[in-house]
Every structure is written in structure tokens, then in C-alpha cells.
Design a protein that fits this description.
By secondary structure, the chain is an alpha+beta fold. The protein folds into two domains: 5-33 and 116-295, Up-down Bundle (Multidrug efflux transporter AcrB transmembrane fold), CATH 1.20.1640; 40-112, Alpha-Beta Plaits (2-Layer Sandwich), CATH 3.30.70. Helices cover 69% and strands 11% of the residues. The strands form two sheets. The protein has a four-stranded antiparallel beta sheet with strand order 3-4-2-5. The protein has a two-stranded parallel ribbon with strand order 1-6. Helix 5 (115-142) runs parallel beside helix 7 (175-204) and helix 8 (212-244) packs antiparallel against helix 9 (250-281). The protein is elongated and about 80 Å long.
Length: 297
């Protein structure tokens, strides 16, 4: 039987090979922040006839405004959010759209400052911190504190992997990206809890002389089919949405694809390995049966 835990040093190396380039890119290059974070211009336009969001997006791509956020507000009305434009550029854009589709009226033409983006960033960081603390408290109560630390380490692994890849490839992020990160945390922690729950049950039935590494490895094999099946069903849905769901969903879906892949990996290969090393470095705690198993490692 393939032993996941005995090869944990290789999983650590593999994780570092993924995370370190991303962390360096985040420090040097940062993230490609979209209009939600940087501010820009907002135009609400009433057209003479119904136009599709895709038609407007394709038209804006022809004048190098493909990064604009476009959404429908009414049957004949479209909201366009662009990067920061001068007054002349804004008027030029309105003239261009009038020539392309025919405008009935410009309902709004105003600048949106980066204050909204700063507030969104602060709330996103606060949400990540609060979610991590609450999850660690829950896992510490349900299992033990070291497993809580291991689970948070796995979550940090998934967040850094997603942020790092977005930074390396300089993919633009928007407010939907924040929602994707929070969703990834929920998916990843659920998969980790399933494995830790199986470890706990197997430790209760462990015989004297059983090694903790072997008990955890058995638990991973027992939950492996569930982890793979869950990931595949989620991935099929995400891939369908990525290719068929339209441009507005791509940032969210791409982040989810990366996060779900990383979350599955970290739950199986990373979280349990970190827990084992924490148990070895800081022995003690847990039930008598668990301490007996630990002593055999």
C-alpha cells in the first residue's frame, strides 16, 4: 500500500516549489487589481434598441477597453465600468458607442474612486482572518489544537497557491475573486475535517503497537475515494462554467479551479503530514490510547 505519510518530505518540497515562486511574484509584482479595487469611470447608457452584453464587450475590446466590467440594468440599458478615463476619453467612448449601437440617453457618467476597493480589501482580509480563527477553534474543540493548526496551515497553503498563480500570470482580479477565496476555504476545510474525523475513529480502534503514521495512512486511503469523487464532480461543473458561463464568471471560476485542486491536494497530502510533525515535535495531549499510538512513531 502506498504510504502517504512516510513520503511527506516530498509533499513539502512539492508545495514549496509551487508556493515560493508565487510568494516572490506577490512581493515583487503584486496582483493585477481590477476596477473594483482601483476605481474608474461608470457609465449607465440607455440604447435605442436592446443590445447584448457580449456585443458591447466585443465592441469595447476593439478600442482596448476589454477589461471593462459590463452588466445589464434594464432591457435597453447597460452599465459600463472602465478604468480611469479623462473627460475627453469618456466623451470619445460615448460617441463610439452611439455610432455602434445608437444611444437614447446617457443616464450616468461619473468617476468611481478607489475607496470602495480599499474597503473591500480590508473586509476581505478581516473575513479571511475571522473564518480562519473560527475554524481553528472548532477543529480544536472537535479534535485537538494541533489538528486545528494543521488545518489552518493547509488553508494558508491553498490561499497562497491561488494568489501566487494569479500573480505569476498577472490575471486580473475583481470582487468575485474574494468570494472565490472564501468558497475555497470552506471546501478545503470540509475535506480536511472528513479525513481528521476518520483518523480520530481509527485511533479509537488502534491496537497497542500501531504506529500513528500507519493509522493516519490507513485513514487517508479510506477517505481517498470520497475525496477524488467529490473533487471530480465539482471540477466537471467548474470546467463547464468556465467554458460556457461567459467572461464575467471566468475570474471566479478560474480561482475556484485552482483552489479546489490545491484544497484536495492539501487535505490529502499536506494537512495530515503537518499534524504528524506537530505531534512528533510537541508530544502530549489527547487520549491515553492516542498517546500510546503516538509513542510508537
Amino acid at each position: 500500500m502506498f504510504h502517504f505519510i512516510r513520503l511527506r518530505k516530498y509533499w513539502y518540497i512539492f508545495s514549496l516549489l509551487i508556493l515560493i515562486p508565487g510568494i516572490i511574484s506577490l512581493g515583487v509584482r503584486g496582483l493585477n487589481l481590477g476596477i473594483d479595487f482601483t476605481g474608474g469611470n461608470l457609465l449607465e447608457l440607455d440604447f435605442k434598441q436592446a443590445v447584448s452584453v457580449q456585443e458591447v464587450r466585443s465592441s469595447l475590446a476593439d478600442i482596448n477597453l476589454e477589461r471593462s466590467v459590463i452588466q445589464r440594468s434594464d432591457e435597453d440599458q447597460i452599465i459600463v465600468r472602465t478604468g480611469v478615463l479623462t473627460e475627453a476619453e469618456s466623451e470619445s467612448l460615448i460617441t463610439y458607442l452611439e455610432e455602434q449601437f445608437g444611444l437614447e440617453e446617457v443616464l450616468r457618467n461619473e468617476k468611481v474612486g478607489p475607496t470602495i476597493g480599499q474597503e473591500l480589501t480590508q473586509k476581505a482580509i478581516l473575513a479571511l482572518f475571522a473564518a480562519s480563527v473560527l475554524m481553528m477553534l472548532y477543529i480544536s474543540w472537535r479534535f485537538e489544537f494541533k489538528q486545528g493548526l494543521a488545518a489552518i496551515a493547509a488553508l494558508l497553503h491553498d490561499v497562497l497557491a491561488t494568489l501566487g498563480l494569479f500573480s505569476i500570470f498577472y490575471i486580473e482580479i475583481n470582487s468575485a475573486f474574494v468570494a472565490a477565496i472564501l468558497t475555497i476555504l470552506g471546501y478545503s476545510i470540509n475535506a480536511t475535517i472528513v479525513i481528521f474525523d476518520r483518523v480520530r475513529e481509527n485511533l479509537k480502534d488502534a491496537k497497542k503497537g500501531d504506529k500513528l503514521e500507519d493509522v493516519v495512512n490507513t485513514s487517508l486511503w479510506q477517505t481517498l475515494a470520497r475525496s477524488i469523487n467529490t473533487t471530480l464532480t465539482v471540477m466537471f461543473m467548474l470546467l463547464a462554467l468556465y467554458f460556457l458561463g461567459g467572461a464575467t464568471l471566468k475570474t471566479f471560476i478560474l480561482a475556484m479551479i485552482i483552489g479546489v485542486t490545491s484544497g484536495t491536494y492539501s487535505s490529502i497530502f499536506f494537512a495530515s503530514s503537518v499534524w504528524i510533525d506537530l505531534k512528533r515535535r510537541f508530544p502530549g495531549g489527547g487520549s491515553r490510547r492516542r498517546r500510546t499510538a503516538d509513542a510508537q512513531v
